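Here is one chain, start to finish.
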Amino acid sequence: MPKKIILTRSTEDNQVLAKQLLALNYSVIEFPAIKIVDNFNLNQAIQVEQYDCLVFTSGKAIQATRRYFENQHVIVPQTTLIAVVGQASAKVFEECFRRRPEIVARNSNSESLVEDLILKLATKQKILFLSGNLSLDILPRRLREQGFAVDLLEVYRNLIPKVELPSLREILAENPANLIFPFYSPSAVNNCIILLGNDSALLNKVQIISVGARTTAQLSVHQLVPKVELTNPNSQDLISALLTLI
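Its structure:
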């Protein structure tokens, strides 16, 4: 019986990975547990020129910011440094803004990005974090502790989609030992637990793959331990991890 993999990201985000998994004879269940909606005040103008560096915590933040900037006719000065989490976000930024970020996190996670900012920026420089509603405040706080002036702007919200979804309980009830559950973010963990009626014990029998230390930390809050923890959210690393679970 082929292993079943539950993909919790949006169908758009899963397209390439789903095709790769199907080609490897995995059974794919798409269960989009996250809905991204823009969350910015169109009547509020942002003076980006007052910031030395704009920090984007995800590709979604980049895309939402582009829509906001286009609406407000905001132009980012070439002298303003751009920092992103990993090569995937760097590619998204380049596609959206037609320029390459100056700072790209070495290990494709927010913690690494903060370390790079501390190394590459002069203290007392002003930084604007553009992120979602569930991003951790610990990252800006670390920069403030190092002497940076940091502002936060929530450009999107991460919600549970109000659409007809197959019951997660029904999916887990059918041979849970044959299920593989990759979690890409803390919010995916939280949303799935909510959809299970806060009964996280139902996930104890599935094989969990966690992407990133923050995702693993959120799993531990619910007494869940991943079989594998990945550093990078790319499909090749996920497929390699899947082979270890066979």
